[in-house]
Specification:
With 441 residues, this protein is α+β, with helices and mostly antiparallel strands. Helix content is 51%, strand content 11%.
């Protein structure tokens, strides 16, 4: 496992070639080892630009909040425009702030109660198709479930075949995303037909969703803001880019969070038992309401602990626009700065026994003066994930809804191994045995 790495000698310095090789073969291990080697500010002199890994909450806050105006998205995400276009995820500066203000109404806290019935009903229908004591790949199950929730929540409908088509395209793009990271001309990428086909399919699906007659569900949804309430702020290309961004980002990271939740619960039966006890007490045999979500405290701690141990967004890259200074370290313009949720969330200075899955740890952590940026699963600053509250509510609701009726048992002797790509995915999926619960609510 990449999480159990020995400390290297303090006077040892990683060369650029060694670091690149390690990042290619084991990114989580490379970043963890680099932090052990050099401490809170790690530096590798790369061929074209300096690379810094910042590992202390104070320094992370400098990049994401206090000096955020001096940093733009890193080169990797900038190249994601090849797939996502000029949407919220890839825009910068004043353009990003204006776009975010226009889209924020779809994610206000008071709007969550309108999304919750969709989450509940989708989860109920999805899990009703499961067979007792059968093996399920929760990676696939959660991807399909959260995609269906995203379609109904953001677009007001889920046209037949859309889930399958988007899922297929997503699998292709995840496999071929390294291609999009290379500084190649567009014509070269088009020589890879699967990559081009996946892009084209997503484009067609997105356009169909935008042109689909609005349903009752869509009146306050993202699609309505994009099409009718933006007062001409967005071009057709931007509308398409926003819709595609929320179609993909609106389900993929939450699906991974839920997948990792089931992996952890399957291998920690005492935690699952305590979860079921809370769900039985709070919900009984009914769907959760907005008030119930706030009462499912242990369920929320399970979600937070999973986000700590298996953050779907495992690193954030930024590039310095001008020379600056952080923690006494001069950072030249053009340098790449990385903050890693994976590294910080496993730092023993902030988490006792960081390799252990202990949801109860949050009881004490939330009472103490815990460093704000020692836990940053959704990023921070003006670029904090716009769907943070949506994702947390969805994860709590799905875990509670499924735990009312089902118990998950491990199909493998050990938890899945994390495989970092665009997001942190299980290397071979998460297969569990689902067993129908028999209880008195």
């Amino acid at each position: 496992m990449e999480t159990n790495l020995p400390l290297v000698p303090a006077n040892y310095k990683t060369s650029a070639f060694e670091f690149i090789w390690k990042m290619f073969h084991s990114p989580l291990g490379a970043l963890t080892n680099l932090s052990h080697e050099q401490g809170d500010i790690a530096h590798v002199k790369m061929p074209k630009r300096d690379f810094y890994l910042l590992n202390h909450p104070e320094f992370i806050e400098q990049v994401l909040v206090k000096q955020q105006g001096n940093f733009v998205k890193g080169p990797s995400l900038q190249r994601a425009r090849i797939v996502l276009g000029e949407g919220l995820l890839t825009s910068e500066g004043e353009e990003h702030l204006a776009q975010r203000r226009a889209l924020q109404p779809a994610f206000h806290r008071h709007r969550m109660e309108e999304y919750l019935p969709i989450m509940n009903e989708s989860t109920h229908v999805h899990a009703a198709n499961w067979k007792n004591r059968k093996v399920l790949d929760m990676s696939d199950e959660m991807m399909r479930l959260t995609l269906n929730i995203a379609l109904w929540s953001f677009f007001g409908s889920a046209p037949e075949g859309t889930v399958e088509r988007v899922s297929k395209s997503m699998r292709t793009l995840i496999c071929l995303f390294p291609l999009a990271q290379l500084p190649l001309p567009e014509a070269t990428r088009n020589l890879f037909p699967k990559f081009k086909q996946a892009k084209d399919d997503l484009s067609v699906v997105t356009e169909a969703l935008l042109n689909n007659p609005q349903s009752e569900y869509a009146k306050h949804a993202l699609v309505n803001i994009l099409k009718e309430n933006n007062k001409g702020q967005f071009t057709d290309e931007q509308i398409h880019a926003h819709a595609l961004t929320f179609l993909l980002a609106g389900h993929e990271t939450t699906a991974l969070l839920l997948t990792w939740c089931w992996d952890m619960l399957a291998h920690h039966p005492s935690v699952q038992e305590k979860l079921q006890s809370e769900v039985d007490r709070v919900l009984g045999d009914r769907f959760p309401s907005d008030e119930d979500i706030s009462k499912l405290e242990y369920t929320r701690m399970i979600v937070k602990e999973t986000l700590r141990m298996r953050p779907p967004a495992w690193a954030i890259g930024r590039q310095a626009v001008n020379d600056c200074e952080i923690g006494g370290q001069e950072i030249k313009a053009g340098s790449v700065v990385i903050v890693s949720q994976w590294v910080t969330h496993h730092d023993p200075r902030f988490y006792e026994a960081p390799q252990e899955f202990k949801p109860e740890r949050w009881i004490e952590l939330e009472k103490t003066d815990f460093p704000r940026y020692a836990f940053l699963p959704f990023g921070g600053g003006s670029r904090v994930c716009i769907g943070e509250h949506f994702a947390m509510m969805e994860a709590i609701a799905v875990v509670a809804m499924i735990s009312r009726k089902w118990q998950v048992l491990p199909n493998n002797s050990k938890p899945a191994i994390p495989k970092p790509s665009v997001t942190l995915r299980p290397n071979k999926g998460v297969k569990v045995v689902v067993e129908r619960r028999v209880y008195d609510a």
